[in-house]
Design a protein that fits this description.
single chain; 459 residues; alpha+beta; two-stranded parallel ribbon; 19% strand; elongated; transmembrane; Rhomboid-like_sf; transmembrane helix; membrane; Peptidase S54 rhomboid domain-containing protein
Length: 459
């Protein structure tokens, strides 16, 4: 019987979340990885380099695939085998155990011909000890963790990870890449999954839900009014809300101008309501990006001094007051222009606001690009994010047009109202240039002041 383990190519990518690589450092940083590392940006990357621990992220080591300002390193981790008598001959790391009572521990082995290899074995999991200090940084001592989810890693080369205390509570700690697997930590990068604003509320339910509600108050109240109006229509028909809240152009002669701003609360059926709510919740970034993490240590919001994540959301939010202003503008424009062809049409629903906020978002991201702020934030793949964001908006527009065409022109009033609202939302941003973000990385409160226009070349 052969006492030596058999080395085979049994390693595999660490997860579906990391099949496109995980950011591990920018130019000049130390990239920590157990697997293969690539150097470059966008669609131009160097060849794979096997790394067992760390490597310097530089053109001198990898070669320069294409002259560009900012380059990063991506790690493609390999998972060690767990089969008895078999080991992985290339650098690898252990998977995260889904069972909180057990863990996978990495061990170094040697084959019969002297080749170094690695494997993972199952052991009983260690629990973390909660650190009750008031520090804003997560503990780095082995076995120590913080109960504050908002804690950050003091060292930019460390990775924030989650573990559990003896009582089963979640807590957070920081460790170098490849370390701490014995603590039952989770390092999966789920950035792409959480890119849709619709899903932000479910990142860390229910805490994330309340964070989104607090950060996007205007949109939250608007959605709540839509739901309240629908329930009143269904369960309290005696209130006759459709008689007093619907937009009906002839009523303007009587001075009933409130109808411009109340018809959004009424929806013909549940499907109509749900489609509009999903559309609105995909535009949460118009008001602001909440302080959430797509995975431990990876913020949803782009920050000037934060980690250079592959994709993040720049905070182009314009605040609740300007969001309310856009809503009022697009509601009025949508109702007026939508009923020009059919003066006696009865208008209901929040669709005008849905398309109005889409138009505002297109303008905001256009101004963001025109001002070169993606370069100031050093977002490595902002182009991919930008087209993904525009693609979501374009999808809603195409569906609306297709519905109108397939309806043989029966929904012309709705389509005209939606496109009018889209243009109105776009024009609101271009004309008023509302302040963008929370001031954490913009040089001025107002993007578009004469000083800033001169500096960035927009104007």
């Amino acid at each position: 019987m052969n006492p030596w383990p058999l080395a085979i190519q049994s390693g595999s990518p660490s997860s579906e979340d990391e099949k496109d690589g995980r950011f591990c450092g920018k130019e000049g940083d130390l990239c920590k990885c157990f697997g293969k590392v690539r150097y470059g940006r966008l669609f131009s990357w160097s060849g794979d380099l096997a790394v067992d621990g760390s490597v310097n992220c530089s053109a001198a080591l990898f070669g320069d695939p294409m002259p560009m300002d900012i380059k990063i390193c991506k790690c493609y981790p390999t998972i060690c085998t767990t089969q008895v008598g078999i080991c992985t001959p290339e650098p690898c790391m252990c998977a995260t155990s889904r069972d909180p009572d057990f863990e996978w521990a990495k061990k170094t082995l040697m084959t019969g011909d002297g080749t170094k290899c690695w494997a993972c074995e199952r052991k009983r999991a260690a629990t973390g000890i909660a650190d009750n200090t008031n520090s804003s940084f997560c503990p780095t001592q082995m076995g120590r963790c913080s109960l504050k989810r908002s804690c950050k890693c003091e060292s930019p080369s460390d990775t924030k990870r989650v573990m559990r205390t003896k009582s089963g509570e979640k807590c957070w700690t920081c460790a170098a890449v490849g370390e701490g697997r014995a603590l039952g930590m989770d390092t999966g990068q789920r950035a792409m999954f959480w890119m849709l604003p619709l899903l932000w509320s479910f990142m860390d339910w229910p805490n994330s839900f309340w964070q989104v509600c607090d950060g996007d108050r205007a949109l939250t109240i608007f959605v709540a009014l839509c739901i309240l109006g629908y329930f009143c229509q269904v369960f309290a028909p005696f209130l006759r809300l459709d008689r007093f809240f619907s937009f009906y152009a002839p009523c303007m002669k009587k001075g009933e101008f409130w109808r411009f701003f109340t018809y959004f609360m009424l929806h013909s059926d549940l499907q109509h309501l749900c489609v509009n709510l999903f559309h609105l919740m995909d535009a949460l970034d118009l008001e602001g990006v909440p302080d959430l993490e797509v995975s431990p240590g990876v913020p949803l919001k782009c920050t000037r001094d934060g980690p250079v994540a592959t994709i993040c959301y720049p905070d182009v939010g314009i605040g609740w007051n300007n969001v309310v202003g856009i809503m009022a503008t697009v509601l009025a424009f949508g109702a007026l222009l939508g009923t020009m062809k059919n003066f006696g049409a009865l208008v209901q629903g929040a669709s005008s606001v849905c398309f109005g906020v889409d138009g505002a978002l297109i303008a905001l991201y256009g101004v963001f690009l025109g001002a070169g702020l993606d370069q100031q934030l050093k977002i490595p793949e902002f182009g991919a994010f930008f087209w993904m964001r525009i693609g979501i908006i374009a999808f809603h527009i195409v569906i609306d047009i297709v519905q109108s065409v397939c309806g043989s022109g029966k929904d012309t009033v709705g389509t005209v109202a939606h496109m009018s609202a889209l243009v109105a939302g776009f024009c609101y941003v271009i004309i008023f240039l509302p302040p963008m973000g929370d001031g954490s990385f913009f040089g001025s409160d107002r993007l578009g002041t004469p000083r800033q226009c001169g500096a960035t070349g927009i104007g």
